[in-house]
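Render this sequence as a predicted structure.
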Amino acid sequence: MNSSPITHLRHVGIAVPDYEPAVEFNRGVWGLTPVADDDGVSFFAAEASPEQYILRVRRAPEKRLDLIAFGAEDAASVDALAERLIAAEVRIEREPGELDTPGGGYGLRFFDPEGRLIEISSDVEQRAARPLEPRESIPRRLSHVVINSVDILNTKAFYERHLGFRLSDWLEDKMCFMRTRADHHILAISSGPHVALNHISFEMRGIDEYMRGSGRLIRHGHRPLWGPGRHGAGDNTFTYFLDPNGNVVEYTTELEKIVDDDTWVPRRFEATPEEADQWGTAGLITDAMIPAMFNEPDKGLWTPAPL
């Protein structure tokens, strides 16, 4: 029986030095919908998602991960979580209260053990969403986020102990896939040489739309770092690209669902070509892929985001 108060991944906030190219990329070729902007901060929604926004891009001198935001069941869950975190001496950045970002809501912010800022919120006003049409090759919603950790076991234990995440699978001992509901993972933790954002993944309507979206990026001169293909862990499709600030972003679809949570036994996948890409279409991981996913060391650790 699931005991996590977290329902889903709500949005990811990033700060970038090349702000205008980032805005143009996300509202243009990547296919997100601008819904608000405020003095160097842009908010982007997915047409089929009821979330007010799934990506926040902020102008800044240095690139950083501003925050990862998850949804909670209700305000009582937010308050109960805050009490547990305070009792465990987790560093709280913002105690539970009303949020002043688009959609409002009630939430708190705290730092994970490596200094990433995490937001948990409830009661955020939903936006009007619409089903995507066949062949409409824009993101349907935010799928998952992957972070790089210098201590994967300790970071994994934090999200399990304090936020109720459960382990779905391992990729050798290098990456663990974590869930709170039926989606195979909304968070994955990858072993890396420094703390950083690994990649942000966006779910497409289906295989055809996923391929059309991947093709659109290619036609616009964005060569894939890796893909198209289908992973073993998670069974999802993948095509990875670089955004204008050197962050890795992914188109995906058909992520595995874990319907019987209590009986699920985590598996261990090997980093072989056959298990990394079931289809065999993506080829070997390119020389550019691994350093791109390691990304640059995050310059914003233990530092509150300005909004």
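Summary. The chain has a mean pLDDT of 97. The two ends are 35 Å apart (CA to CA).
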